Write the structure tokens for this entry.
Amino acid sequence: MKSVARATVLTAVFSMFLALAAPARSQQLSKIPTVMDAHPTIVEFREDISRADVVVRAKIVELLRRKEGVLADQDALVEVIRTYKGELPEPQPCVRMEIYQALERKAGVKLARVGDEVILPIEFVHPYSGAKPRNGQKLHYMVPFYYVIEKDGTVSSAFGFPTDMREYASIDRFEKLILDEVNRPQSPQRKYETAEVLFTDNFDDGSLAGWTFLVGERGFKKEPFNQQFDVIWIGPNSMVDNELHGTGELETVKVAMNSQPGLYHAHRNDTEIEIGVVDGRLRLRSSNIWAHLTAVTGDPQWTDYQIDVDMINLVDKELPHARANYMKFGPYGRLRVPNMPETRGEHSFVGVEFGNFANYDVSEETFGNAAFQIRCKYPEEPVVWRDHSRMLRKTKILDYHAWSIPQHKQIHLTAKYFGNQVEGWIDGKKVLSAEIPADHPGIKNGRIALWTFETWVEFDNVQVTRLVPLQ
Amino acid sequence: MATAVGAREGPSQSSSIVLTPDQKTICVANQDSGSVSLWDWSTGNDVHEIAVGNEPRTLAVSPAGDLLYVTTQRSQELAIVHIQTGRCIARIPIEGQPVGLVLSVDGRQAYISQYAGKYIDGKYVSGVVAVVDLASRVVTSQIPVKPRPFALARSVDGKTVYVTHYFQIEDKGVVTEIDTEALKVQREIALAEDRDVVGGRGGVFNALSSVAIHPNGNRALVAGMHANVHRGVTQSGMPLSHKTTVQAVVRICDLNGGRELDHARIVSSFSGQAVAAPAAVAFLGDGEHFVDIYFASHDMKVIRYNERGIVAERSLLELPDGPTGVAITHDGKTAFVNCRWDRSVAQVSLTDIRAPKIVRKVFVTAEPWDAQRIQGARVFHNTRDTRMTPNRWLSCGICHLDGGILPDNLLWEFTEDQKSSSPRLMNTKSLALTSWSGPPYLIQGTFQTIHEEDKFIRSFLGGSGFIGSANDVFPEYPEGRSQEMDAVAAFVLSLRPRPNPHMIGDQPQPAIRASAKRGRAIFSSSRVGCSRCHSGRYLTRSGRDKQTKLADVGTGLFADVPSLHNCWATEPYLHDGRARTLREVIMKYNKDDRHGRTSDLSEQEISDLVHFLLAPVVEENK
């Protein structure tokens, strides 16, 4: 209970900050082309349908919670009319329907109301232990974006459809598009086998040799918005980060070598950041908002390989509610860092990770912990508000599985990259598979990395093994 | 070793590959062929090869572009090639293993590092930089410097020549500044040990292979290795590991202040992708970026120059085998890399520094060695082979340097599962005498075959190994079970020491000849008894029968008896390097006369014995 209460306080503080920063952000956001001007394209729609666990047509029966404003969303009891994909155990589930940045971004956006018929691509989000989804459900049902079926049979998007989707804006054609994607034959998986070990590190020698850390560069902007979110990657060479205290003052965060050999320390938001090898494991600890710790190694020319790594996720006693934020961790593959190790967001990767689904703000009451997912990040502008990063498709979730992340327990994760195929395995069992988009910089080759975001993870027994076509 | 920017107004540096001033011709030293090759890269792939002497190392082209100067380390000469006719027109004797070479701005003088030192006025000087007047072809000055001078760079104004010393000196790397007007040492820049011992980033700065001056003239990059010799169970509490032993590093010198920027060390193997054995460093164009090439991992990094200690890596490119030198065009858009083991020059486009690519490769010399020997050289050095090491950390050639000939002159603390019977400091052995002094091999005579090094590869180097074994039991007769290890053995057995500066021909230098002759008598006498163990032509009883005969000479370890040929070059001495000089071996660390009965030798006899050891002439090889 205590942690939930503290998390609520943090969320409240965060919301206050957002409210204060909103005008400046709005001004800045107007310069950023966003999907919210028109969403989705056909490609984006297909991706959403493909990734969803369940796709249904449903009628809103009751709104259990409704929130407007910047992060407009609502919890709705719905009655399923037709199921296109997957299956829901409940005939009348409670779903979280989101429209990011809805009211701020586009005047006149109307959220769905009771009695509306809607198309819902639903994704399962696993709750933290102790937190209960509404309606007695075992899982949260997250709807990242939904579509309203008007009385005349047209289908509408809150932000309007882009040109290529407009011809599908009738329910019959819309349904056909959904079913085409659901029934689309999967491209055959190419088979592979392991070859030689390219890299191995068990950290038993207490050394970070061979690893480097992405380093956010100082890059002050005149716009207040950008000042707030300038530098977010932290490595041993980082010297500057911007604090989020809202006063416009910048705080220097020095990541310095501690007296304990090989362990780097920094403090931010009264929370410890640690990088180093402790007891034969790589510690990346950043129980803190907006602190990326990314340890990179390997040859950028590596093509097909699998990454094996043992990981233990630890609760930070200094900030036990930190996991209510955006915790993520795991390996990256096909990492491209044009300005290695400095980056202000221009790097890209295909991660097989645990953590909150995409960048969803599920901190409000749902406390999802929640996903095992394949996520690819594209090169970004130097500063991109994280939600926009998702909405702008700078970050794509390629596959997803609801997952309760164990704490203080070792997980063996295997991430496989073979051609454009990516797979995620846990403890020897295949869970995820996806194809890297053809336009992603990591379609062919790249380094590897281990990373954490707002959480504390210890990594061990990292191995990279080349994959070759099965003879 | 080393690197060069095509001659123009600006700094220059010694290199095994250079461009002519018109940028049209590549000149490359073929170290193992005894030749240089000229390649007019602007017109085609035709290469003209010219014999210049044994082991050509570095080159320089006259400002007029008509003459090519070449140092030859084994022939000990400065060869002069007329570029247009492609003929070697002169060979000027230069004692002491000449290696590095740069010309004065006007091209009238050559500055040459004499790696092995030489006798000046009857006294041995362990490091010398010679100044040669190129018109008269006479050595006009000899500037004594610290031992093992190697790579050179000349300042923009020509008033200063910078000299790296290949090996660390008392735990410091050293760059010597020479005033070319006063012809004397102006200053020494100390490159101190990096103390990140446990983290594995640090070490003493050793194997200073290349020096490059920034176009602004205020900074110099020095490429070398961090040798983490103070890591070990008894020293730091943590044993050495394949990751923490050696790092490729670039140090930055402030040439105005005469000091190192110690916060700005660019430890390029520690970050991103391990690389091994830096061979050359060179600036691109205006100095915003530099390239660093690595002999053992055979790749090239383009790094953004910075003084924050960040390996700001913009790209990593795999090169053909054994890159030793790089020359860059004036516009900074093309690099030419001399790839020793591939016998080729790779033309690399740097138009996009984030995606450099090899656009052409030209073979510049016929393979001078038999197939097994060259294969062995490649395997011996190659850190890209995961049978040798994961992630390109180590290979045999990381500690056995300069083509396997030189030991790193360092002490390493190996543990029982590495290279010692218990945690102890071990002195890296010279391999140049392997064919004379083995089997057995290793200090403790552990191996009867070179192939058994595969055990060390699997344990310490972390490789998967070359020799298959059933049930993890190493085969009793490993020969013939791995083509690669057969080749490594052939390569190691082919190594030979370079000329001894204490000798002229097969005789000791005149200054010590009589003394060395007396020393030989002392050495051979039954009274002292050195020759009981250091016997025969090769001054060792090892290598002649399979019965390993180890000896404890008072150091507490039964060790194989080494050959004493070439011991002028292999300090420190004894298995744990406790003796810094031969005199200390004889006197200071000869407890109870267990290492020959030397306690009653007179001062003159000790001196005689030392002179014999420096210039050993034995009956069998007269």
Remarks:
- Chain A touches chain B at residues 196-201, 204-212, 215, 237, 261-262, 296-301, 338-342, 447 (CB under 8 Å).
- Chain A is about 15% helix and 40% strand.
